Structure formats: C-alpha cells, structure tokens
Fold this protein.
Amino acid sequence: HYHTIVGGGRKPSRKMGYEREEIKAKFDGNTLFLEWRMCDANKYPEGPKGVIAVVPGLCSGPNTSYVQRFVRHANKHGFHVVVLAIRGMGSSPLEYGNMTAGTFTHDIAYVLEDHLTSEYITARFGKNLKLMAVGFSLGGAMLANHLGKTPNSRLHCAIAAESPWDFHQSTAMMGTRFAKLAYQPALMKGLWNVIKKTGDNIIEHTKSDTLRENLQMLQGKMTKKDGMKGYTVNDFDTLVVAPAQGYESANAYYTVASPFQRLGQVTVPLMCFSAMDDPITGPPPALDQWDAVCDANPNILHVRCPTGGHLGFMRGPIDELQGRPGFMDELVVRAFESAAANASNSTAAAPTRSNSKLSPKM
C-alpha cells in the first residue's frame, strides 16, 4: 500500500506541456486528443530512437503524475512520446455517448493502426521511426485486448504495465474494506466527474433505456449531499459501463474484458509487467498459467516483481529526493531501447524466455 499511495501519487519535479493534435475517431467521429511531447533530437546523432504511444489508465490522462514521469524519462532517453487522452477523461471530450471501457478498443485501434502510419511518422519526423506502445493499468488491458483482436498490428512491440488480467479478481481486490477506504473514493470522484461532464450527452445518444434511466437516477443523487456516498467502481460498472457496452451485467462485462484470454492471439512482442503486491489489480495469474501462454506464443513475455504496488515502485529516500525515475519507468524505457536497438541491427526481437522475476532496487 505504501508504494501505491505514496509512490503512485508522487508529483513530477515540474509539469510538462504538450503539443495537442486533434483527430476524429473513425468509429463515431468523436474528437480525440493526441498529446505529443518530443525529445531533443539534436542530442542524438543517429536521431530519435522511436515513437512511444501511451494509453493511460482509469481516470488518468496526460497530466496525471505517473504519466508525466514516464513521458519525461522516455524523452530523456531519445523517444518521442504521444499520449492518447482517453475520451471522457480529464479535458478529453465525449461527444457521442460511447464510453471508454476495457472492451472499447476502437480508439486505440484507429490511432495505432490507421493514424500513426509509417507515412505519417515519416512526414512528421523525416524518418520512419518504429512505433511502440505502453498501456498502464486499464490502458494496458485495453492495449492487450486490441492486440489480441488485431492479427496484423503495425506496432513494433508493446508493454502492458500493472494491468488487470482478470477483471473479476480486480473487482474483488477493490471490494476489500481497505480498498473501499483508500482507493475507491479517488476513483469514484473521477468517474462521477465524467458523469457530471458527459451524462447529458450520453443520455441523448444512447440506445439503451437501462443506461438512460440509470444515468438520470445518478444525476438526481448528485444534487443531494452525500448522495453518491458508498458507491464503488463495481456499482459504476453495473449501472453505467455494462449497459453502455451492451452487457447484461458487470460480471458479463468483466468476463469479456479480461485480456489474459487473448494473449494467445497477439502477433507482436508484448511484455506483461505486474507487481505481486498490487492492491488494485491484484496479483497476476499463477506462473503455470503464464508458462502455458508463453510456451504457446513466443511473442508474450511475463515479468513480475515481488513488490511495487500499483504504479508506485518507490525507491530509497535519497533516490526519491534526487528525483530519480522509478523502477517501472526504467524497465519500460529499457525494454523499448532494447527493441529499438534490435530493430536497427536487423535482428529478431521476439522474447525467448517465458517468465522473469525481477527485484527492483528500492
């Protein structure tokens, strides 16, 4: 819990700005924000190492602390970075009622496969840089689900960091007494802000009578003092996400959204990175399950750490005071550096080990 509460919320040394690109989603025409942060190409004689696309987690965006820290670290190591601002979260608009969820991968598919093409990257940077992607938490689950449904992805490689591989298990973890006190309030505040900002729009465009009635009920409770007290992410999934995505129940949604079942169909190198003490997603599936997946699909690499919490990975006091990047940021960037180097040397980049156990230096 220390890693999660203190580490996950620690602020970057200073906030960064982005260069915003606005595009229209292929699925429904919703405006999507791509937030770009370029590295200083003059510092790298051979040019930037690649482009990293970032998919943030639930209630997160380009200005969330862990995203800012990662973007800064990736820039320092020679990568251009683009953050996909998830629709409805933060300042990103939700115009036509289609909410983001673990099963809603249309935006990721359009951005990664149709928009950030070789031609686009060459025109923008003067060189066809390799495109890589990392998803954090829910963003990693969405990215893994996308790759499991996309047999010819143009990504060079990808990483799913601290993601819920089994949504049922993650829901159970978030249902514990401590989680309800420590983690649920912040998440629910973010989700209620989404409803406040986009509820009327969703009601106008949805074809689901159940969703419309649930949103109107929630909007009525929001006007009352403590009207939203006690609600959980599971309640939100039951009342909003499941009917919005066409599922009869939250459990039905969780079954389809769990990405572990799609890893066998992934056709690009995908590193799945988890902490054993993650109090939000819960521990990853058992090693024998990962062995079976990795043996069947050499594109999958599973890395687990004994500690680190959820997007935390605190270091020692001196390292933290000096603002050193966390273990998660270093691991992800080093993996992408290795993939970029392998690509430049025209060598195979597919992983050969099924499982790794790493101990971050805290």
